[in-house]
Specification:
Distance between the termini: 73 Å
Strand content: 15-25%
CATH architecture of the largest domain: 3-Layer(aba) Sandwich
Shape: globular
Largest sheet: 8 strands, mixed
CATH class of the largest domain: Alpha Beta
Number of domains: 2
Oligomer: single chain
Number of strands: 8
């Protein structure tokens, strides 16, 4: 066998085995990712609420984006459109995902008007309007244990991520890289402003994806429960 042929075979062998060797090095490595923090437990479920479809809608065993649009839901049309385009359209194909908007009894006709507007280009199979008495809506919001409040119409621009186990998910430390470098005081993020496109697109969308990754890892049996950015917390209260 001449030298040129030997050289050719050597190059082919290297080209074949080099990527295989690289993958073998990666294989035993544990895939690390930051999980989404649990901010509060025991969110009250929406048993007893009626829905726009007549179905029994609950939060348990679902990954839910929860919103409160109050007695005048059409005022929240911008928030609804942002949620539809930036969150619903991205995750509607995922099993157990849903968006649930809580409204007082008596707003059914207005909710239908809003949903018809949102459905002009797509069906909203996993988007539900549910209706209950004002005290029940207040109780659901209180059970989230978040710092913001509903206004006098029982509405807020903020929406929340509630996981399958009825926990509020978010960020214990929402500081930017620049704030981390400056060692600024820690602040958390328990809600997402549906009026602000950047908040939904850059933060909520990322956090929902992280939570779906967590559930996928749990199904595979290799979930690491280390909290998201927990090791970066400095000066947080115990």
């Amino acid at each position: 066998m001449n030298a040129k042929l030997i050289k050719r075979y050597a190059v082919l062998i290297i080209l074949f085995f080099l990527p295989v060797t690289f993958l073998l090095f990666l294989y035993p490595a544990k895939h690390n990712y930051n999980t989404l923090d649990i901010l509060s437990h025991n969110v009250a479920d929406i048993n007893g609420f009626s829905s726009d479809t007549g179905d029994n809608i609950i939060l348990d065993n679902h990954l839910t984006v929860v919103g409160f649009f109050g007695t005048s839901p059409l005022v929240k049309q911008t928030a609804a459109s942002n949620l539809k385009e930036l969150i619903y359209d991205n995750f509607k194909g995922f099993k157990t995902f849903q968006i649930v908007i809580l409204l007082p009894i008596g707003t059914e006709a207005v909710a239908k008007e809003m949903k018809d507007e949102l459905m002009k280009y797509d069906e909203l199979k996993y988007w539900h309007f549910v209706f209950g008495p004002p005290n029940a809506i207040k109780a659901i919001h209180k059970s989230l244990n978040v710092p913001d409040q509903l206004d006098v119409t029982l509405a807020t621009d903020n929406v929340y991520i509630v996981d399958k186990e009825l926990n509020v998910r978010g960020r214990l430390d929402d500081r930017t890289d620049n704030e981390l470098a400056k060692q600024s005081a820690v602040y958390s993020k328990s809600s997402y402003d549906a009026i602000k496109v950047a908040d939904l697109k850059n933060k909520m969308s990322e956090d929902v994806r992280i939570l779906f990754t967590e559930y996928r890892q749990k199904r595979k049996g290799n979930f690491d429960s280390t909290s998201r950015r927990a090791n970066d917390l400095k000066g947080a209260n115990e």
